[in-house]
């Protein structure tokens, strides 16, 4: 049998992929993070499926559930918010399953930063303005960041930064980024992206922290910082240029 790590998307139940929904509908066991995954998605599970909320479970308990289901000959859906490839804690679960000899597959999902960009109605990579996006977080009460991945180092690139799990430290982040981006650099915060309670804040590094405090945002948000967020005067992409040579097959 197989464990399927499924990206549930950023929040809206209908942003799960078609493959994700079909896989979920075929699994007799579903493990999900109750605080993050929309409960409407559980309606996709087959009748009689065993549903396990992992919000209060540690890694050992989660692994035990996955191995148990495999031993019973049952396929398992392991629902993760966003996309499993970033900030999902999937790597350690895969390592445990490798050790236990349990097969697994990964079904990608819509990541939070993509939902935030959609809410802002912005392309994060704009010709001649910015072509690099850095996805990162901060180390406060979580696992320490590797050497060389601190904000001061990343900020020197001037790339579009997307900060996860960081909104409660927005004042500290602004202080670290202003020397590299400038107080006038566009910044945005999107909380609960794609959900009915979605909140979108637009501003600059000079005022975004105050906006966050006023809005009372303290969780489930991403911070975006970079010039592409407000770019309007830029060169058209070469992709659709009339000067581009096109071959007719």
UniProtKB/TrEMBL annotation:
CDD domains attached to this UniProt entry: Precorrin-4_C11-MT (cd11641)
Biological process, per Gene Ontology: methylation
Broadest EC class assigned to this enzyme: transferase
Ranges for domain Tetrapyrrole methylase: 2-208
Stored InterPro entries: 4pyrrol_Mease, 4pyrrol_Methylase_sf, 4pyrrole_Mease_sub1, 4pyrrole_Mease_sub2, Cbl_synth_CobM/CibF, Siro_Cobalamin_biosynth, Uropor_MeTrfase_CS
Top-rank taxon: Bacteria
SUPFAM superfamilies reported for this sequence: Tetrapyrrole methylase (SSF53790)
Any one GO molecular function term: precorrin-4 C11-methyltransferase activity
Pathway, per record: Cofactor biosynthesis; adenosylcobalamin biosynthesis
Pfam hit, one: TP_methylase
NCBIfam families: cobM_cbiF
Family classification: Belongs to the precorrin methyltransferase family.
Name the record gives this protein: Precorrin-4 C(11)-methyltransferase
The species this protein was found in: Streptomyces spirodelae
Lineage, broadest ranks: Bacteria, Bacillati, Actinomycetota, Actinomycetes, Kitasatosporales
């Amino acid at each position: 049998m197989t464990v399927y790590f499924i990206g549930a998307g950023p929040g809206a139940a209908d942003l799960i992929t078609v493959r994700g929904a079909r896989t979920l509908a075929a699994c007799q066991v579903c493990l999900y993070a109750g605080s993050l995954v929309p409960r409407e998605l559980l309606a996709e599970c087959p009748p009689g499926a065993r549903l396990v909320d992992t919000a209060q479970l540690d890694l050992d308990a989660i692994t035990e559930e996955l191995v148990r289901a495999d031993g019973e000959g049952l396929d398992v859906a392991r629902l993760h918010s966003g996309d499993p490839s970033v900030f999902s804690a999937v790597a350690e679960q895969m390592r445990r399953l490798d050790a236990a000899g349990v097969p697994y597959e990964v079904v990608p999902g819509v990541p939070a930063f993509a939902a935030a960009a959609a809410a802002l109605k912005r392309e994060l990579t704009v010709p001649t303005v910015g072509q690099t996006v850095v996805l990162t977080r901060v180390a406060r009460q979580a696992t320490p960041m590797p050497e060389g991945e601190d904000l001061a180092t990343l900020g020197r690139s001037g790339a579009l930064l997307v900060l996860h799990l960081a909104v409660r430290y927005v004042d500290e982040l602004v202080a670290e980024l202003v020397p590299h981006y400038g107080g006038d650099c566009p910044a945005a915060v999107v909380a609960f992206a794609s959900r009915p309670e979605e909140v979108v804040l637009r501003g600059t590094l000079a005022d975004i922290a105050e906006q966050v405090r006023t809005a009372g945002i303290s969780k489930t948000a991403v911070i975006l910082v970079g010039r592409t967020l407000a770019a309007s005067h830029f060169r058209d992409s070469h992709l659709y240029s009339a000067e581009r040579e096109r071959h007719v097959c």
